[in-house]
Amino acid sequence: MELMIDYITSLDGYGAADGWPGWWGLEDREYLDWLAENSPDQRTLLMGANTYRLMHSFAASQKESVDALDTASKIVFSNTLSEPLEWENSQLVRGDAVEAVRELKKHSERPLSTLGSLSLSRSLLAAGLVDRFRVVVFPVITGKTGQERIYGGYPDVVLDLVETRTFPGGAQLLDYRPRVLDAPLPPGPGSA
């Protein structure tokens, strides 16, 4: 089954910023409609303990707007959380997340997608398990206030573009097929 890493970022690669609202306050109706069409309840969401805590708290405080997160099937990889998990439709998995996801890809009946979870996503990508890498880049630079630098510690990756879309508010959807590299690519034809 397909596994997708799914992020929203600022232009400078941060997943959040201190003092800024969700989506950096730049979401528009077309983007929100696209989110609804690509609802997380159509996939099995994979997350680590920190993302689980953050998103469960967010979902509890925004009940009317995040029902799809409640109904989505969620798998949480953690050696620190305890069962039963409070958030409905959540399953706790202990141990090696990479091996567990490798098995999920073989047996899952639904597409798999990360929800944030930077270190989990990084380890799944490095293990060659990621089929798609989708990011929505918001037109803001949060150099002073940015938090959760997304790409630090990532392997070198070539991204083959599958789809792109620009929303009216300026956010860019970029959907890729990733290829993890053992070494940088050699210079191409015509390079000096």
From TrEMBL:
GO MF annotation list: 5-amino-6-(5-phosphoribosylamino)uracil reductase activity
Pfam family, one: RibD_C
Span of domain Bacterial bifunctional deaminase-reductase C-terminal: 3-172
Highest taxon of source: Bacteria
SUPFAM superfamilies, sorted: Dihydrofolate reductase-like (SSF53597)
GO BP term, example: riboflavin biosynthetic process
Protein's name in the database: Deaminase
Organism: Aeromicrobium phragmitis
